[in-house]
Specification:
mainly alpha; two-stranded antiparallel sheet; disordered C terminus
Length: 532
């Protein structure tokens, strides 16, 4: 038994699973994190209950009229389907007599169940798929686990593990599609192509713009094959096989998306953004003719890159590290790594360009530019593994700079989960621009810890207009602390949850220590083999 436990504690897959699970547990607040997700959950609820997808009193703040004058949300069905099992379970538990006194309170039992189960599952699976993909690129075990942990702790992936928007689900599906389709390219296993195509197809149900992710994966496969000197005849054969297997799968998911569009709005060919534009202009004729694409391109494009409120380089500094490593070690990169940088660099550029003219190009109330952040995570994915692989040729100066960027990235992401993301949005109403949100977040952390929020001018009247919002944004955004501040749960429940939370934190720190020790000694055991 001791020997088996010892092997588990040297197995990187087990360690990564445990670390991802504990991290996802620790950062949950029990809340869904955004009104968008709450609306998608209501759409989920309408799939199996008699409740409507949009309540009449939400209009015109939310909802658009569809077939028969019925109100619908304007989102795709992907995340709603993802939350379906959790919603069924959460609703059942919420209706138990033991939880009767909590009905109508926030966070609800249903919300807690949905957020915990969904976010934990996505977090663990994404880290494991990342680990698998890095293995396909022939990184060592040390480099693979460092890359997965860098994704988890060093990118905005951590923030969206707490705030359940579509981002991490899209990241999981894109990375899964990439991993399995590349495995097919390397091995010829058709099941891998089917699995990868299904993942990329499912992404289309979540957000149609993920068609760009699908194209990026195709570009990566094509470049990887070309740069590794695959013979032209074999390349044509592989392309034909890809078309025979992948295209019908994509077609099925496109038809499902179009069917959902038809059920709601009576057309197979329009998009919900067209309907949103029509209804918004009817309600407010003063809107620009180009709405919702009236933003000057340069504003949205350079805003996503350089504004202190939303710059992808400030919220995902590993992008900077990826650029440095690529610039200095490009000639030493393996063909598949060059293909990855080209394909996912192009994906990031495509997302920034696509949303540049959108009326809320910044993603509105969110940590960073949420429309672009998933592409930024993927573009930065190889930064840490490549820093480790090419350490010798990069030299000590770049190595130290790289470690500094990694540290800054981790500090930024840890700060991102400390408070609910609307905090800085409220503060920006009275603070003079420009606002360096990342710096302001850490100023808030220090001020709240010292009890100086008001003294430092970090509260205003807008924050106090909605009592729940004010409570939520002025407490640590983790379930035990939020429940204690809200005051709805009995003291013993809060105390038990606090003990469990602290225990989980201690276990996470211990496991990270184990990973560090094994990495230093190169003693990981993968499938019974020691490996670095």
């Amino acid at each position: 038994m001791i020997g088996r436990a010892g092997r588990l504690l040297r197995n990187p897959t087990f360690l990564l699973t445990a670390i991802a699970l504990l991290t996802a547990v620790l950062v949950q607040s029990g809340e869904l994190g955004s009104s968008d997700t709450a609306h998608r959950l209501q759409a989920t609820h309408s799939l199996w209950t008699s409740e409507p997808p949009v309540f009449p009193d939400e209009y015109p703040e939310f909802g658009i009229h569809g077939r028969g004058g019925k109100l619908y949300g304007w989102y795709g069905i992907g995340q709603s389907l993802l939350m379906l099992p959790s919603d069924v379970l959460g609703t059942y538990l919420d209706n138990l007599p033991i939880f009767a006194e909590y009905h109508g309170t926030d966070p609800t039992v249903r919300d807690i169940v949905v957020s915990y189960t969904t976010n934990i599952l996505i977090c663990v699976l994404t880290c494991l798929v990342c680990f698998r993909f890095l293995g396909l690129l022939d990184f060592t075990v040390n480099q693979r686990i460092a890359g997965a942990l860098a994704l988890l702790f060093g990118t905005t992936f951590l923030h969206y593990t707490q705030n359940m928007m579509e981002n991490n689900y899209i990241a999981l599906l894109t990375l899964s599609g990439l991993t399995f389709q590349y495995e097919w390219l390397r091995s010829g296993k058709c099941w891998a192509l089917v699995a990868g195509s299904a993942a990329l197809g499912a992404n289309l149900l979540t957000r149609l713009t993920t068609g760009m992710d699908l194209l990026a994966v195709c570009l990566f496969l094509l470049l990887a094959a070309w740069l590794t000197n695959v013979r032209r005849r074999e390349l044509r054969s592989r392309a034909a096989l890809y078309a025979r297997i992948a295209l019908p799968i994509y077609g099925v998911f496109v038809l499902l998306d179009r069917a959902y569009q038809y059920v709601r709005f009576g057309s197979f060919f329009n998009t919900y953004m067209q309907i949103v534009a029509q209804e918004s202009k009817r309600l407010d004729p003063s809107l620009p003719a180009a709405f919702p694409s009236e933003t000057p391109f340069r504003v949205g494009f350079f805003g996503a890159l350089f504004t202190p409120e939303k710059s992808i380089f400030l919220f995902d500094p590993l992008l900077v590290l990826a650029g440095i490593v690529a610039a200095l070690a490009w000639k030493s990169f393996r063909p598949e790594v060059k293909a990855y940088f080209a394909a996912f660099g192009a994906l990031l550029f495509a997302y920034v360009s696509f949303y540049a003219k959108y009326t809320v190009w910044s993603g509105d109330t969110a940590w960073g530019d949420r429309y672009v952040s998933t592409a930024a995570q993927l573009a930065a994915l190889l930064a840490v593994p490549l820093l480790l692989r090419h350490r010798a040729e990069l030299g000590n100066v770049v190595w130290r700079v790289g470690l500094a960027i990694v540290l800054v990235s981790v500090v930024i992401q840890l700060g991102s989960v400390a408070f609910w993301c609307p905090l800085e949005r409220y503060q920006m109403e009275t603070l003079s621009p420009p606002t360096f949100v990342v710096w302001l977040r850490w100023k808030n952390i220090v001020a709240f810890t010292l009890g100086k929020m008001s003294a430092w001018g970090l509260t205003n009247e807008s924050m106090r207009e909605d009592l729940w919002d004010y409570v939520h944004i002025t407490t640590w955004n983790f379930l035990p602390f939020l429940l204690k501040r809200v005051g709805k749960a009995p003291a013993w429940v809060v105390e038990v949850l606090t003990v469990l939370w602290v225990t989980a934190l201690a276990a996470l720190v211990a496991l990270l220590g184990v990973v560090g020790r094994l990495a230093a000694k190169r003693e990981f055991d993968l499938a019974g083999r020691s490996s670095s």
